Amino acid sequence: MTDAIGIGVGVASYGVSFGALGVSSGLDIFQTMSLSLLMFTGASQFALVGVISAGGSSVAAIVTAFFVGIRNFAYAVSMNDLLQVKGLKKIIAGHLTIDESTAMGLSHKETDGAFAFWTTGISVFVFWNLATLLGAVAINVAGDPKALGLDAAVVAGFLALLWPQLKNWKLRYLALASSGIALLTFSFTPAGTPILLAGVFAAVIAIRMRE
Amino acid sequence: MSMWTTVLIASLSTFALKVLGYFLPESLVTNQTSKRIIAVLPIGLLSGLIAVQLFTTKTTFAFDGRIVGAISAIALLLFRAPFIIVISLSALITALGRYFDFWL
Questions:
Q1: Interchain pair A155, B24: CB under 8 A
Q2: Which residues pair with A44 in a beta bridge?
Q3: Contact of A153 with A129, CB cutoff 8 Å
Q4: What values do phi and psi take at B31, rounded to 5?
Q5: DSSP for residue A164
Q6: Mind telling me how many Å the CA of A1 is from chain B's nearest CA?
Q7: A60: CB partners within 8 A, 6+ apart
Q8: pLDDT digits (tens), chain B, 104 positions
Q9: Domain extents for chain A?
Q10: What are the mean pLDDT values of chain A's consecutive 10-residue runs (211 residues total)?
Q11: In terms of pTM, does the model score above 0.95?
Q12: What integer pLDDT is reported at residue B48 of this predicted model?
């Protein structure tokens, strides 16, 4: 329980950043809040506003957010096995299925995984949304995003999300090559497309490196 | 597409991903190829996003204060700084540089 609250508080720092970045990317406070309430998966939310602020189309933004969120699908499959929920509870469990709740659920598998999952999910949901609101309101009051260095903060945020995923040199090279693909295709494809192409490139390489 | 439509469709599709997992058999994601794609897709997409956010504006390539912010972020990540510190310090460094006219 205290762990669950601790994680919620920790996540709140991402939430404040997301609220601020959402509003400075051209969404209003209500749209930014809707993402935290309805989408409720940080990396996809950051990706969506990232593509929009880069001038990408709606379709590119939606597709990017979807593919960034695809790991939640895998989480849901493994949590279904652990939680054994039915009916409406499946829907609520689905909404709360994110990195933190899944990690807590799986690491408490031997004792009470379901309790750890639910408390963490609810705690993160509450803190994440309060923090988003705080960030969105604060930046609305503070003014010029560029003078505040927020365009650099967006990049820093993505770097921080990517960092822990680069577990070995293969993945680090893959990340570099993917950004190369995005830059190479930037000048002759519609905005937002280079990001998708980087994702497709990474997936194709992953499939080909079977061993 | 309006911003609201974008927000709602995107939210619905990521929500569907999470809920779908509770209704499908586990064998679908335990196969090696799906596992690898699921692990690697976010890496490719985030790398693409970083490159675009760092080196371009809406229409052209651009090299400005964001690069200093990104270098600060990488340095902080190497020292295992927490997320909020990485974000706020790199914003602060970029903002200060702009204020004192060191970079754009």
A1: no
A2: none
A3: no
A4: -75, 145
A5: G
A6: 22
A7: A51, A190, A191, A192, A193, A195, A196
A8: 899 999 999 999 999 999 999 998 777 667 788 778 888 888 998 999 899 989 988 778 988 889 999 999 999 999 999 878 898 899 999 999 998 887 66
A9: 2-165, 166-211
A10: 80 86 92 97 93 91 93 88 90 94 86 92 96 92 79 87 91 96 92 89 86 48
A11: no
A12: 93
What ipTM is given for this predicted complex? Answer: 0.88
**Residue for token pair 């505040």:** A148
Residue showing tokens 């990017």 = A64
Tell me whether A129 touches chain B (CB under 8 Å).
Answer: no
Give the position of tokens 């993945």.
Answer: A171
A102's tokens: 């899944």
Is A150 an interface residue toward B (CB < 8 Å)? Answer: yes
List A residues 158-177 in contact with B (Cβ-Cβ < 8 A): 158-163, 165-166, 171, 174-176
| Cα A87 to Cα A104: distance, rounded to the nearest angstrom | 23
Domain coordinates of chain B in residue numbers? Answer: 1-29
- Tokens for B12, please give them: 């619905």
pLDDT digits (tens, 9 = 90+) for A58-82: 999 999 999 989 889 988 988 888 8
**Type of residue at A122:** I
- Provide the 3-class DSSP secondary structure of residue B65: helix
The CA distances from residue B104 to B31, B64, B99, in Å, are: 49, 5, 9
* A74: CB partners within 8 A, 6+ apart: B21, B29, B34, B35, B38
CA proximity to A130, closest of A12, A6, A11: A12
Q: What would the two tokens of residue A84 be?
A: 């054994």
Residues 6+ apart with CB under 8 A from A83: A93, A105, A113, A114, A117
Give residue-wise pLDDT tens across range A136-165: 999 888 777 778 888 888 889 889 889 988
Q: Give residue A168's identity as a one-letter amino acid code.
A: N
- Using CB atoms within 10 Å of the CB of residue A60, give its burial: 0 to 12 exposed, 13 to 18 middle, 19+ buried: buried
